[in-house]
Amino acid sequence: MSAYYTGTPETRIGAIRVTSLLDGWLSLDGGAMYGIVPKTLWEKALPADQNNRVKMAMRPMLVRTPQHVVVVESGIGHAVPTDLHERYGIERIGPALDEQVRAQGVDPADVEFVACTHLHWDHSGGLCKLVDGKYLPTFPNATYVLQRGEWEIAINPSNLHKASYTPESLKPISERGQLKLIEGNAQVVPGIRYDFTAGHTENHAVIWFESNGESGVFFGDLVPTISHVPMAWISAYDINAGASYHAREGLYPNVMAANARCFFYHEPGYPVGRMLRDKSKYRAEAVG
Length: 288
Prior knowledge:
The protein is of the alpha+beta class and 288 residues long. It has one domain (10-286): Ribonuclease Z/Hydroxyacylglutathione hydrolase-like (Metallo-beta-lactamase, Chain A). Helix content is 19%, strand content 29%. The chain has helices spanning 30-34, 39-42, 85-88, 97-103, 121-124, 148-155, 171-175, 241-258; strands at 10-13, 16-20, 25-29, 53-57, 61-64, 69-72, 113-115, 128-131, 134-137, 143-147, 179-182, 186-189, 192-196, 205-211, 214-218, 261-263, 272-278, 281-286. The strands form four sheets. Strands 1-2-5-6-7-10-11 form a seven-stranded mixed sheet. The chain has a seven-stranded mixed sheet with strand order 12-13-14-15-16-17-18. Strands 3-4 form a two-stranded antiparallel sheet. The longest helix has 18 residues, at 241-258. It is globular.
């Protein structure tokens, strides 16, 4: 299998269908992506380019339950000006998110709900799209179910946060009455729920899929790639690395107990895996 996987695999979690899409590629400093982990270790998982950057995917998901159509995460969309694409190694390689959804046999107008683990621009940039120079919600009939604290920071970011959020690309969701704010653990629809973790951002939450005794978990940026699964392999981009570690301590045993399929947003290879434990150490491997 290629180190850079461009497919759109579908995974079954009981009666739930999870399709991993691809909104392109992002290259960020490898040292920042792996925090305290030495380069001699992390470069075996993700080799760096001449600028010490590692290339990662951006993988939104189309999730179909027996009753609902949900989009989870949204890619980068049009949120970042093209003059910054070189800085972040952004490569848009295909159609916009709504067209990717259409290619899976779903009319974008039929998407009922949208959820995001957090609202950094590489995860939320596709929530709205540019139409004649104006941002409009990508899914015109959807309810966007988002964490209240994350939304409040994203819409009015402080100097600490402003490089990570693009408020103008988000505001139309609220202006058009499509925003539903929740706090902490909450259900999106039956079978899909938020599990609040903090760590990567103050209000980050992973998302669980549960159906017919089977489970899946989408880690967002708490665990951005398969290679980030080991407990201490935490990104320096996390607002609170200690909180990320604590969240993993609580989350990983639940993932193991549920034998949950794991979904990795930034994984450049195959984005679906299983978590494994060797004595006190966790790791993961890709599974089709």
